[in-house]
Write a structure and sequence with these properties.
This protein is α/β, with parallel strands linked by helices and 273 residues long. The protein is built from 8 helices and 9 strands. A 5-stranded mixed β-barrel has the order 5-8-7-6-9, surrounded by 4 helices. It is globular and about 50 Å long. Bound molecules: hypoxanthine.
Length: 273
């Protein structure tokens, strides 16, 4: 099946199971998937039950959509996402976001676990993404352009909507939650970066590093969605501290900040979107 048929097929499959059109999309990153359990009147669709859909395989990632309501808003959440390092093309990785567009989603909140490059921060910090550096070596819009989604050479000067971001940071502050601002750089993974790569990324202007988000944000921007990005700094990036990096630390920190992370998503849904 070609990519466009897979996008349309996924949207049709979801529409056949739910009787409403979601307005807000959530992509929940490593260790951050529990938020989907907050949705009321949930309808669950396993990715495995969607023909032509990729399937996620990382520990800490469930593999399903949860559709439901929060504060009276209609939401579609991805509990588990796909990663470039799993071997999918970026065109495949972004099938879900483009299917969300066909379902009517106009606002997308993308979350991830990330390594802290900015040494002013420590693990557990939350960062609103101001911009990104696509260091993955690929782009989800490569290949034939789907004109009905967007143009061949889309502008990327404001991938992450600044008005939504500033509102989020301000409302979070009112609620006693500190949110940093910074630039996210995507490496492919799955190996963590080397200290030399992190020094390079810092020199390039990056504040946080991860293995996701950029493809989804590009595809969402292409089709005109307003995007908010939140990184949970689960560890300091390679070489910042003496300790080696491991996935367990990522999951433990994500779990530790779950309370504030949940509040922040609530703020985004209730007050920002
Ligand atoms: N590097 C890349 N991806 C990550 C990291 C990191 O340090 N932490 C969580 N995801």
């Amino acid at each position: 099946m070609d990519i466009k048929s897979r996008i349309i097929g996924a949207a049709k499959q979801i529409m056949s199971v739910v009787d409403f059109s979601p307005e807000i999309g959530l992509v929940l990153g490593s260790g951050l998937g529990d938020y989907a359990e907050m949705l009321e009147n949930p309808v669950i669709i396993d990715y495995a039950d969607i023909p032509g859909f990729p399937v996620s395989s990382v520990a800490g990632h469930k593999s399903r959509f949860v559709l439901g309501e929060r504060f009276g808003r209609k939401i579609i959440a991805m509990q588990g996402r796909f990663h470039y390092y799993e071997g999918y093309s970026q065109q495949e990785l972004t099938i879900p976001v483009r299917a969300m567009h066909l379902l009517g989603v106009e606002k997308l909140l993308i979350t991830n676990a990330a390594g802290g490059i900015n040494t002013a921060w420590s693990s557990g910090a939350l960062m609103a993404i101001t911009d990104h550096i696509n260091y993955s070596g690929a782009n989800p819009l490569m290949g034939p352009n789907f004109e009905e989604f967007g143009s061949r050479f889309p502008d990327m000067s404001e991938v992450y909507d600044s008005a939504l971001r500033e509102k989020l940071v301000a409302e979070a502050e009112n609620a006693g939650i500190r949110v940093e601002r910074g630039v996210y750089i995507m490496f492919t993974g799955p190996s963590y970066e080397t200290p030399a790569e992190i020094r390079m990324a810092r020199a390039m202007g990056a504040d946080a590093v991860g293995m996701s988000t950029v493809p989804e944000a590009i595809a969402a921007n292409h089709c005109g969605m307003k995007v908010l990005g939140i990184s949970c700094i689960t560890n300091m990036a390679a070489g910042v501290l003496k300790a080696p990096l491991d996935h367990k630390e990522v999951m433990e920190t994500a779990n530790r900040v779950k309370g504030n992370f949940t509040k922040l998503i609530d703020i985004a849904i209730q007050k920002v979107f």
